[in-house]
Amino acid sequence: MFADPLWLLLLVVVAALAVGYVLLLRRRRRDTVRFTNLELLDRVAPKRPGWYRHLPAAALIGALAVLTVALAGPMAEARVPRNRATVVLVIDVSLSMQATDVQPSRLAAAQAAAKAFADQLTPGINLGLVSFAGTAAVLVSPTVDREPIKRAVDGLKLSESTATGEAIFAAMQSVETFSQAIAGAAADGPPPARIVLMSDGKQTVPGGVMPEEEPRGSFTAARAAATARIPVSTISFGTDYGSIEINPGERTPVAVDDASMRQIADLSGGQFFTAASEDELRQVYAELGEQIGYEVRRVDTSRPWLAGGALLLVAGVGSGLALGRRFP
Q: Model confidence at 10, in pLDDT bands (50, 70, 90)?
């Protein structure tokens, strides 16, 4: 792929120069053999170096060909860091996060993995943080400064209930507010955004037969996110055998709800992941960081061609002076 492929037409001129050089050599050889006096031939056409006498011309013709390709602007696909993007990390802090099926606990493992995600994410990306239990709270608005994010993660506290839909709506509002704040400074509109939702259980707020389908439910919020073009990537964190002790001596099962988390991702256009340990959660965050922090773009790759052409040009001129004490 080339930015200006019309420059490649100059290769026809380069090819013509190469053909002209070959024809000139043949004509010189033909004119030389017309002499019948061998003694005179030795004086008129002394012995020349071998095949390497053609190196100067070959190097210069090669330089012209390589520089012509550089002028055409060769392009290639490459992974480049994103300079503009908004990511809101949404973390469940409901009581089920105290379960110890993930050592040392679901919450502690989530905190460690979230801080690692913040550190590894491309520096140019704006990262925000939302926590939720019975209600949702925007703890840190999107920013490129990772320290407020990590401090807020360290300060997460457990609470009752799970309002997943409210958490998605709060994250969307955070994205919208941030986008409006920078829209005037960005000529190409607001940056792309994504929500990363980590939860371990089923939504309990609002109530009802199908709480996810309520106006403030998680499925309704996922559809709204899709309309706003903010995909929600979900991480179902924990195991099926997790339990917590709410009343002394009484264990309450808190199995993960993969089905709901998958549905949220599907409805919003995001991706669904599962993690049953801190290591798996870190791997999921690392994969998301690669997807969010980098993008594939077509970039200019003409610099190596320019360097190669310049080196061939220097080699052609240098070898011409060394072999014949003249330019080729």
A: confident
